[in-house]
Write a structure and sequence with these properties.
mainly alpha, 9 helices
């Protein structure tokens, strides 16, 4: 037997695959918020659509149950910092994709200065360096509430908990050359020195050649004439 649960998709893709304006917006959001793929973006968009569709249904309702659901929806969005507690249901329709992306754990770590870039913030989360209320969180797309925003910190056992860590201070470690590289450099310098010493020798040889020719000419004696019989 298989799993009795009904597995549902966590997001819904765009209705039309080729829309230049939408593709340009998605590319800009991927770069700005350090998202790996468009699935992460579509998850946030679909979550925002659930809020807007629920708000559209509640706007037309006049029953007591509708009023309760309105209060629940606004209180839920207020906990995530998307709306104020005094907002109305109509204000839900004014939310953008950026509003919900700003509440992701990855963006909040970057905004708080715990990471230099968005990609580095994602790396800290995936490598289990971040905790919220003494609980490790390994999902960069985790939506943080206003109450938990102040509790974001590095794990106690993590090396990044030290404020003097080079990844936090921005200092770079001095690189020590390897012994293999030193050998290569010494060989190169030796070859260069040999070339420089060989050049003047070649010049001397060129100057010495005419002198040798002169000596050979001097040493050659004239042949004696054959004696007449």
């Amino acid at each position: 037997m298989g799993d009795p649960r009904r597995i549902r998709g966590k997001y819904s893709g765009p209705g039309h695959p080729w829309q230049k304006s939408r593709l340009d917006e998605e590319k800009a959001l991927l770069r700005e918020y350090g998202l790996v793929n468009k699935k992460e973006l579509w998850k946030m968009v679909s979550k925002l659509k659930t809020f807007t569709t629920q708000a559209k249904k509640l706007i037309a309702s006049i029953t007591e149950q509708g009023e309760r659901e309105k209060e629940q929806l606004i209180s839920r969005l207020a906990r995530f910092g998307l709306l104020s507690s005094e907002a109305k249901v109509e204000d839900v329709l004014s939310l953008n994709t950026k509003d919900i992306l700003e509440r992701r754990l990855q963006t909040l770590i970057f905004r708080k200065g715990l990471a230099k870039t968005m990609k580095q913030a994602r790396q800290f989360i995936v490598h289990e360096h971040i905790r919220i209320n003494n609980k490790k969180v390994t999902s960069p797309s985790y939506l943080v509430t206003l109450a938990d925003e102040a509790a974001i910190e590095f794990c106690a056992k993590s090396n990044l908990a030290n404020p003097e860590h080079p990844e936090r201070t921005g200092e770079q470690k001095e690189t020590i050359p390897k012994p293999e590289e030193d050998k290569k450099t010494t060989k190169k310098t030796q070859k260069k020195q040999k070339k420089t010493t060989d050049k003047p020798k070649a010049a001397k040889k060129t100057t010495e050649k005419p002198e040798k020719e002169q000596k050979t000419k001097k040493e050659e004696k004239p042949e004696k004439p054959a004696e007449e019989k």
